[in-house]
């Protein structure tokens, strides 16, 4: 198992069939993540397979769509994973949803420098490598997108935690993080912003009622009128409703979700 030294260099491999994307990512890493040392760049999943088996890095930047076999198939062929994973992809709702669901990291192309720095920072801080269970969730979701899964993987700085979606009462934004408040009165901080959590929970009865709040419709106890009004949740918390989101909320409640 590889480990990170926050005061030293971190080895990385870039896998992408587009040389321009590799060059762009390498330049961004050199400029904005000087503690990352690129030990190899692979332009195909096949060459990456040989490289990763011979000399695994601490971070793998992995493109999803590649000829012959894609990034997900590469992971299956590798078997044991002993490095942190950061996927790189053009917008692919299906793939991104699966990645979010499994609490793994991803970057959209063209890669934003601040998002890159944040993803690398999280990878370096994690004390655990991607767990086999996490990868299993991802690959099962890719193979069977319609599969019914009650638990979702919530990414944290330490790794991830499996949580019943229905046990989440509300989510509150905190910059690049989101605080989840659960039925058992516990609180969990996810290393995802509220927009990411909203998309992760889109298959469940959640609704965005404010720029800062996402709530479980089944956990609403009361709606109190006002310009936007506010909600009283099952845990007795108060959640403000923005004026622009009030109409959709009321329609959802009246329609029974």
SSE layout and pairing:
Blueprint: E1 10-15, H1 19-32, E2 36-42, H2 45-54, E3 59-63, H3 71-78, E4 84-89, H4 93-101, E5 105-108, H5 113-125, H6 132-143, E6 151-155, E7 160-164, E8 168-174, E9 177-182, E10 187-190, H7 194-200, E11 206-210, E12 213-216, E13 220-224, E14 230-233, E15 238-240, H8 243-254
Parallel strand pairs: 1-2, 1-3, 3-4, 4-5
Antiparallel strand pairs: 6-7, 8-9, 8-12, 9-10, 11-12, 13-14, 14-15
Helix pairs in contact: 2-3, 4-6
Give short descriptive properties of this protein.
257 residues; alpha/beta; Rossmann fold; OB fold (Dihydrolipoamide Acetyltransferase, E2P); five-stranded parallel beta sheet; five-stranded antiparallel beta sheet; 8 helices; elongated; disordered N terminus
Sum this structure up briefly.
The chain is built from 8 helices and 15 strands. It has 257 residues and is α/β, with parallel strands linked by helices. The longest helix is centred in the first third of the chain and has 14 residues, at 19-32.
Number of strands: 15
CATH fold-level name of the largest domain = Rossmann fold
* Total domain count: 2
Structural class: alpha/beta
User: Under the CATH scheme, which class of the largest domain?
Assistant: Alpha Beta
CATH H-tier superfamily of the largest domain: Response regulator
Mean pLDDT: 87
Report, as a whole number of angstroms, the end-to-end distance: 46 Å
Principal-axis shape equals elongated
* Rg measurement, Å: 20 Å
> What is the N-to-C succession of helices and strands?
EHEHEHEHEHHEEEEEHEEEEEH
Work out the helicity level: 25-40%
CATH architecture term of the largest domain: 3-Layer(aba) Sandwich
Largest sheet, if any?
5 strands, parallel
Query: Uncertain regions: pLDDT < 50 for 5+ in a row?
Result: 1-6
Strand content: 25-35%
Strand order of the largest sheet: 2-1-3-4-5
Domain HTH LytTR-type: 152-251
InterPro entries: CheY-like_superfamily, LytR-like, LytTR_DNA-bd_dom, Sig_transdc_resp-reg_receiver
Domain Response regulatory: 11-124
Modified residues (4-aspartylphosphate): 63
């Amino acid at each position: 198992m590889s480990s990170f030294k926050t005061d030293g260099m971190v080895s990385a491999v870039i896998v992408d069939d587009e040389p321009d994307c590799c060059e762009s990512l390498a330049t961004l890493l050199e400029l904005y993540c000087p503690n990352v040392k690129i030990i190899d760049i692979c332009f195909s999943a096949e060459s990456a397979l040989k490289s990763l088996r011979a000399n695994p890095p601490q971070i793998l930047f992995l493109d999803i769509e590649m000829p012959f076999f894609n990034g997900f198939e590469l992971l299956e062929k590798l078997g044991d994973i002993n490095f942190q994973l950061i996927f790189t992809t053009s917008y692919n709702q299906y793939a991104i949803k699966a990645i979010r669901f499994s609490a793994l990291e991803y970057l959209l192309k063209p890669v934003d420098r601040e998002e890159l720095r944040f993803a690398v920072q999280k990878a370096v801080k994690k004390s655990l490598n991607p767990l086999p269970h996490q990868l299993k969730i991802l690959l099962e979701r890719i193979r069977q997108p319609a599969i019914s899964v009650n638990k979702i993987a919530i990414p944290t700085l330490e790794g991830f935690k499996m949580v019943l979606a229905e046990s989440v009462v509300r989510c509150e934004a905190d910059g690049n993080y989101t605080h989840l408040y659960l039925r058992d009165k516990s609180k969990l901080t996810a290393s995802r912003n509220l927009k990411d959590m909203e998309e992760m929970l889109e298959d469940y009865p959640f609704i965005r009622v404010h720029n800062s709040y996402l709530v479980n419709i089944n956990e609403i106890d009361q709606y109190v009128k006002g310009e936007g009004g506010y909600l009283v949740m099952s845990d007795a918390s108060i959640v403000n409703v923005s004026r622009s989101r009030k109409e959709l909320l009321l329609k959802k409640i009246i329609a029974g979700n």
